[in-house]
């Protein structure tokens, strides 16, 4: 590209600018209106209860629609006849041929068959059994075989436990023996004894969920007793981040070197601690077991009793330590230049202090996007209607056809097929809305990416405009506008909504393609087509690289938009060619600065994480009795670590955008001006001194 030429009228971000990329702005408005319409339609047709509450065989919610029963019990009966299986092949949902589903007030707690309950040995058994039959079942004198044939009651009851409002067999293992209700066999209701292991496969996933539920409950208990300490930890991280940034304004050079040394020391202590734990476990029973032999355990504290765990931690920390030291050795001369940029960014942020709080606005808007997308997705996925099919025990020409329970008893079906029933089959729909639900879901995902990227772009162009006002002020800060952040925000919304929509649209398209590729990869995992898997992996890699490049290009294009007010394509082209003309500076200065910011995050997160570790494990004697008792001490520790990283990332993202903006403006300054009286440099005296540049005839103060 052609270097920028001197423009005597250019004095920083242009205020007299016009609207850019109007077509994209109109498209965004139309898309948002359509998105709102989709949300309203989804909220009208959807019913989130389908996700939360189970249904009986008639499609009615348990615990809803006037019924007090809360749980659904899957009543067992004999295998379906041959013609029933044939109906399933004709398209009847597998749910239809599963055991009958009945809403009950509690799950059964004993083994019992309907034949034994109706035999009259214990009158209370039949009354107990009755609560697990359909509500219409009243005739206790009805022949048992007739009751089972009409599917009014299940053939047998099995001791069950409630999980997610459903009754699952209460399977347990005692000394390696699988048991249900302290029994190893059960009566299937037809006079045959069966082994309880036949129930194991059907309830295996339920037991995994049950264990996960118990784990979740313990984690929830830990949060209830430690939430205020977690908040204190996050406040400490926020204060540490703010103090770190404030100190960078005055002691950037010292702070950077201290930060580097502290990170090395923190990692060194981590290595020392892992070695001490590794040595302490030597000779203890069970400590030499490998992670592979131990397998997955819900109690993660078990892994801390293995020497192999601490050895793995120590090796990882050693590798990280060596890599950081090598990078510092080879980049030591460039660190001085990065320090100069950080100092200049510190001065810029000190004059635009509101910029440190601006990420909260971006975070709030992103939360709105996520909430609207998630709620719309739930309502769309629950928009299907209950579909009922005809089922019968004997051959019938209407078997498998759609029916309506309200009019089924008066239809010709019951006359031609007396034993036919109209039962709930699945959730679906045959209207145009239901046929295009997948398209609406795709549109929902696409709009989420578009709006989320637009919010991020709005934050970037606002910060860029504010910091560019600082750089292009010849007398800093006297020539800066009164409210640079609000001025930049207003210019972005008033003039450049279309350009931001254009850049975020391109990025959203690439991200939707990546999501589609991930979905295809998930579906092809069971396939043996190696060529398809290879091709899919190549496409995923290519689009990952494309997304990274577009994010980099968009970021710099937004800086040019904030400064010059040009459209997206022109700004992207000018930014790209400007960076290519200074590729060495880009590769060294910009990336070294990013690396230093990463070390800053690592120091804050590591320090707060170590403090949380010693506190929650009760290793600080002064506050040993203050720490709450926990099931898993890693729960609050991980929460504090993740929260600290997000807080530090929010603070440093402002700094990162400031450095990128100043760097791009600095390159423009070098091309536009030469330091003469007619074309003076706008850079600060420190940068001019570092680069050995001067403004002729003007003292540098």
UniProtKB/TrEMBL annotation:
Leader sequence residues: none
Catalytic reaction annotation: choline(out) + n H(+)(in) = choline(in) + n H(+)(out); ethanolamine(out) + n H(+)(in) = ethanolamine(in) + n H(+)(out)
Location within or outside the cell: Cell membrane; Mitochondrion outer membrane
Pfam families cross-referenced by the UniProt entry: Choline_transpo (PF04515)
UniProt protein name: Choline transporter-like protein
InterPro entries: Choline_transptr-like
Family (UniProt): Belongs to the CTL (choline transporter-like) family.
PANTHER family: CHOLINE TRANSPORTER-LIKE (SLC FAMILY 44), CHOLINE TRANSPORTER-LIKE PROTEIN 2
Coiled coil start-end: none
Keywords associated with the record: Antiport, Cell membrane, Glycoprotein, Membrane, Mitochondrion, Mitochondrion outer membrane, Phosphoprotein, Transmembrane, Transmembrane helix, Transport
Domain of life: Eukaryota
Residue ranges crossing the lipid bilayer per the database entry: 21-43, 227-247, 254-272, 310-331, 352-374, 447-472, 493-513, 557-580, 592-616, 632-652
Phylogenetic classification of the source organism: Eukaryota, Metazoa, Chordata, Craniata, Vertebrata
GO molecular function, one term: antiporter activity
UniProt function note: Choline transporter.
Membrane topology, as annotated: Multi-pass membrane protein
């Amino acid at each position: 590209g052609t270097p920028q030429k001197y423009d005597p009228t250019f004095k920083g971000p242009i205020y007299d600018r016009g609207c850019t990329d109007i077509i994209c702005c109109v498209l965004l408005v139309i898309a948002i209106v359509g998105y709102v319409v989709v949300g309203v339609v989804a909220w009208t047709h959807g019913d989130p209860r389908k996700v939360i509450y189970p249904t009986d065989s008639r499609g009615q919610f348990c615990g809803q629609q006037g019924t007090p029963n809360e749980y659904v019990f899957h009543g067992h009966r004999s295998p379906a006849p041959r013609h029933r299986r044939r109906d399933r092949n004709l398209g009847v949902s597998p749910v239809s041929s599963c055991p009958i589903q009945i809403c009950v007030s509690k799950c059964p707690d004993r083994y019992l068959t309907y034949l034994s309950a109706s035999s009259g040995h214990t009158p209370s058994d039949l009354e107990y059994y009755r609560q697990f039959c359909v509500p219409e079942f009243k005739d206790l004198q009805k022949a048992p075989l007739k009751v089972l044939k009409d599917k009014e009651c299940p053939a047998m009851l099995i001791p069950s436990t409630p999980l997610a409002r459903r009754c699952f067999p209460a399977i347990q293992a005692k000394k390696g023996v699988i048991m249900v209700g302290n029994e190893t066999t059960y009566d299937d209701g037809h006079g045959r004894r069966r082994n309880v292991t036949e129930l194991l496969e059907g309830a295996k996933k339920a037991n995994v969920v049950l264990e996960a539920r118990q784990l979740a409950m313990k984690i929830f208990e830990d949060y209830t007793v430690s939430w205020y300490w977690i908040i204190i930890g996050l406040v400490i991280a926020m204060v540490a981040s703010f103090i770190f940034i404030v100190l960078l304004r005055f002691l950037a050079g010292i702070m950077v070197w201290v930060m580097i040394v502290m990170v090395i020391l923190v990692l060194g202590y981590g290595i020392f601690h892992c070695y001490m734990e590794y040595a302490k476990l030597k000779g203890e029973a069970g400590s030499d077991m490998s992670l592979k032999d131990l397998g997955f355990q819900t109690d993660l504290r078990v892994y801390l009793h293995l020497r192999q765990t601490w050895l793995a931690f120590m090796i990882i920390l050693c590798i990280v330590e060596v890599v950081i030291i090598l990078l510092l050795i080879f980049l030591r001369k460039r660190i001085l230049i990065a320090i100069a940029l950080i100092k200049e960014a510190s001065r810029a942020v000190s004059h635009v202090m509101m910029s440190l709080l601006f990420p909260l606005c971006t975070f709030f808007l992103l939360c709105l996007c996520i909430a609207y997308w998630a709620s719309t997705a739930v309502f769309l996925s629950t928009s299907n209607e209950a579909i009922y099919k005809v089922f019968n025990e004997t051959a019938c020409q209407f078997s498998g056809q759609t029916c309506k329970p309200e009019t089924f008893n008066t239809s010709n079906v019951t006359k031609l097929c007396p034993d036919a029933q109209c039962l709930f089959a699945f959730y679906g729909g045959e209207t145009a809305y239901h046929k295009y639900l997948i398209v609406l879901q795709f549109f929902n995902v696409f709009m989420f990416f578009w709006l989320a990227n637009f919010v991020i772009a709005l934050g970037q162009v606002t910060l860029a405009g504010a910091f560019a006002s600082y750089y292009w002020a010849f007398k800093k800060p006297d020539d800066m506008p009164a409210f640079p952040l609000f001025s930049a925000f207003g210019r972005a919304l008033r003039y450049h909504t279309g350009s931001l929509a254009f850049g975020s649209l391109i990025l959203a398209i690439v991200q939707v393609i990546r999501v589609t590729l991930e979905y295809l990869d998930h579906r092809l995992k069971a396939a043996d087509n190696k060529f398809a898997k290879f091709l899919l992996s190549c496409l995923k890699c290519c689009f990952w690289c494309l997304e990274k490049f577009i994010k980099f290009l968009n970021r710099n294009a937004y800086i040019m938009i904030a400064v010059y007010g040009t459209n997206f394509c022109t700004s992207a082209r000018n930014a790209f060619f400007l960076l290519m003309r200074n590729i060495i500076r880009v590769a060294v200065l910009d990336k070294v600065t990013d690396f230093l910011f990463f070390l800053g995050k690592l120091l804050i997160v590591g320090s707060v994480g170590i403090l949380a570790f010693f506190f929650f494990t009760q290793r600080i004697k002064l506050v040993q009795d203050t720490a709450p008792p926990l099931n898993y001490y890693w729960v609050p520790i991980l929460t504090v670590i993740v929260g600290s990283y997000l807080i530090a990332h929010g603070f440093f993202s402002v700094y990162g955008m400031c450095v990128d903006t100043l760097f791009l403006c600095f390159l423009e300054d070098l091309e536009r001006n030469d330091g003469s009286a007619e074309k003076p440099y706008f850079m600060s005296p420190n940068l001019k001194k570092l680069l050995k540049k001067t403004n002729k005839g003007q003292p540098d103060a």
